[in-house]
Every structure is written in structure tokens, then in C-alpha cells.
Specification:
34% of the residues lie in helices and 22% in strands. By secondary structure, the protein is an alpha/beta fold.
Length: 200
């Protein structure tokens, strides 16, 4: 039963992602997504194992909404380059965000293995496989308007803007607002209200 509920949730998010990007639809989608996120999507015990494909399907949907509720500086590139750095557990789920638009800006998903290329990204998901080098990598991106994302324990306190984790079989997230604002980013108040913790 829990597995069926998760499949329904994923279908719901996939439907949101496929809707036309008109202003009205975006407003409706964002409102529905905010409410949906407020329930902290349940993950059944059978799929709550680390790095399970089902877990990353849900995380990919969260990432789309994180991007939708993020405000970049006005002079930011019109393409939102979403980079996956490190071991990729998403499979083709993250690729479903390819060419989706948010406020007339299109998402382009790429995998990057060279840390020197990260400055070209508008959003970066850091895999757990690079957690040992996370501090030094973030130090190489000071004050860049880049939305940094992860699912590594304590990553938000170490400088990641938004960090996801499994807690009581639910995906929850923390926001490091101070780091985001230092980088020129800001978040919708709706997203801040839904965070499990906000570092000021």
C-alpha cells in the first residue's frame, strides 16, 4: 500500500513537470507543489534504503521545486544549467527536468566530473560520493550565484544551500539561508516555511 502511495506521488510530480509553462499553470503548480511538499512526501519502509531508485525519483521532483522557488540575480543566464557532480543515483529521472521552463528560463541537465567546470552552473547537486571533498569544492565557488543541493548528512551546516535527507521514512530538507543570500540567491517564503530547519 505504501509503495502504491509513492507511485501516485511520483506520477503527480511528473504531471506537474509536464504541464505547459503558462503563468497561470505555473502559479497553480507552485501552489499545489508547496502544499504537497508540506506533507513531506512519505517514503515506504521498503524503499527507504540509501540510494534507492524510488527515493531519487522523489528527490528529482523536489529539485525541480527547489529551482522553481529560488530567486537568482536579474542578470543570471536565461538557461538554468543544473549540474550533477559525483556519482549519479538519479538515472534518467533527473533528465525529465531537461528543457522544462520556469519563468521563461529553461533547465538544462548535465553531468560534470571536472570541478573546474562548476562555475558555469546555476544549480549543482553534489552526490554523497564527493562529500569528503565538499568543503574544498564549495570554497572554490565563493559568492557565486549557484544553488547548491545535496543529500549528505550535515551538508547544510557545511555550506550547502539546500540539503535533503530521509527522516522517519519521509524526505525533509534544510536550508542554509545565510549561504544562499551571500551568493546572491533568495528563496520564496513558502519554501522557507516548509524547511525542517533554516540556518540564518
Amino acid at each position: 500500500m505504501a509503495l502504491l502511495a509513492i507511485n501516485v506521488e511520483i506520477q503527480f510530480f511528473n504531471l506537474l513537470i509536464k504541464l505547459p509553462a503558462t503563468f497561470v499553470n505555473r502559479c497553480v503548480c507552485y501552489t499545489i507543489a508547496a502544499l504537497w511538499l508540506g506533507f513531506s512526501l512519505s517514503i515506504s519502509h521498503s524503499v527507504a534504503k540509501a540510494d534507492s531508485p524510488l527515493e531519487y525519483q522523489v528527490k528529482a521532483a523536489f529539485i525541480y521545486n527547489f529551482i522553481a522557488f529560488t530567486h537568482w540575480p536579474d542578470n543570471t543566464n536565461q538557461v538554468i544549467l543544473l549540474c550533477v557532480f559525483g556519482e549519479d543515483h538519479f538515472g534518467n529521472e533527473i533528465d525529465k527536468l531537461q528543457n522544462r521552463s520556469i519563468d521563461k528560463r529553461h533547465i538544462n541537465v548535465v553531468r560534470i566530473s571536472d570541478p573546474d567546470q562548476l562555475k558555469q552552473c546555476q544549480a549543482i547537486f553534489f552526490s554523497k560520493s564527493v562529500s569528503n571533498n565538499l568543503a574544498s569544492i564549495l570554497n572554490s565557488l565563493p559568492n557565486e550565484p549557484i544553488l547548491t543541493l545535496a543529500d549528505t548528512p550535515n551538508a547544510a551546516s557545511k555550506g550547502i544551500a539546500i540539503n535533503m535527507s530521509l527522516m522517519n521514512q519521509k524526505i525533509v530538507f534544510e536550508i542554509n539561508l545565510a549561504i544562499a543570500r551571500k551568493s546572491g540567491l533568495d528563496f520564496s517564503s513558502k519554501l522557507l516555511q516548509l524547511a525542517a530547519k533554516v540556518y540564518q
